[in-house]
Automatic annotation (TrEMBL):
Keywords: Transferase
This enzyme's EC code(s): 2.5.1.18
Pfam families, A to Z: GST_C (PF00043), GST_N (PF02798)
Domain (GST N-terminal): residue spans on this chain: 4-85
Organism for this UniProt entry: Deinandra increscens subsp. villosa
Superkingdom of source: Eukaryota
Catalysed reaction, written as an equation: RX + glutathione = an S-substituted glutathione + a halide anion + H(+)
UniProt cross-references to InterPro entries, sorted A to Z: Glutathione-S-Trfase_C-like, Glutathione-S-Trfase_C_sf, Glutathione_S-Trfase, Glutathione_S-Trfase_N, GST_C, GST_C_Tau, Omega/Tau-like, Thioredoxin-like_sf
Keyword Endoplasmic reticulum: no
Name listed for the protein in its UniProt record: glutathione transferase
A GO molecular-function annotation: glutathione transferase activity
GO cellular component: cytoplasm
Domain (GST C-terminal): residue spans on this chain: 90-211
């Protein structure tokens, strides 16, 4: 395992990169992070060569071989480094984890983005309702458990926690507090951030909120 050469093509504000960093930390896999400096105007040749279809971060390079798309990368890590498994063993539980992974991937980031990128108040309200409805389903499946699969922090936790350093920006521009609506889900965020693998992998939410404010100015929203 020590002989593996692992690199992560990454960008500091990307929630999709953050979730891969959490997975690497949970699995104790040493890696080198290679940061893109300007994803909008000047992607590196290495990124374009490694992910020619989407040209997006994150990309994992394992012994020089590229793996793209964050959920696919985390699934790959779990298969290539089977110690400390992230996905449950049982086929049924695994299918449930994949169901929620797919739900999170389709819904959470676009719904959050709609909150801070909307201009008119009625659009912001609609985006906020949509985001909170998505959170309602996630809160429901979490229930009274510590983590999505029970007692241990795993696949679904990683996919969702990676997105949460953007949540304070959604709360700010949507004028709500997640904990007022879903205290158990909010407690799950606090519990998960208390893990070193999470706090050391995720970007400080304040930095993200400043980044969002800068983008809002760029789009003429404030
Ligand atoms: N579905 C992808 C999304 C990755 C993504 O949206 N990456 C963004 C940064 S957050 C990116 O590289 N954007 C540059 C671009 O789309 O040109 C994943 O899960 O990895």
């Amino acid at each position: 395992m020590g002989k593996d050469d692992v690199k992560l093509l990454s960008m500091w504000a990307s929630p999709f990169c953050m979730r891969v960093k959490v997975a690497l930390a949970e699995k104790d896999i040493p890696y080198e992070e290679i940061l893109e400096t300007d994803l909008m105007n000047d992607k590196s040749d290495l990124l374009v060569k490694s992910n020619p279809v989407h040209k997006q971060v994150p990309v994992l390079l394992h012994d020089g071989k590229p793996v793209a798309e964050s959920t696919n990368i985390i699934t790959y890590l779990d298969e290539a480094w089977p110690a400390k498994p992230l996905l449950p063993d049982c086929a049924y539980e695994k299918s449930r984890a994949r169901f929620w992974a797919d739900y999170i991937d389709r819904k959470v980031y676009p719904a959050g983005r709609a909150i801070w990128s909307s201009k008119e108040q009625d659009e912001v309200e609609a985006a906020k309702s949509n985001f909170l409805e998505i959170m309602m389903y996630l809160d429901g499946t979490l229930g009274d458990k510590d983590y999505f699969n029970g007692d241990t922090f795993g696949f679904v936790d990683i996919l969702l926690i990676g997105l949460t350093s953007w949540f304070p920006a959604y709360e700010k521009y949507g004028d709500f507090k997640l904990e007022d609506h879903y205290p158990k889900l909010a407690a799950w965020i606090t519990r998960s951030w208390a893990r070193e693998t999470v706090s050391e992998s995720l970007t400080n939410p304040e930095k993200i909120t400043n980044f969002v404010s800068m983008m809002r100015k760029m789009y003429g929203l404030e």
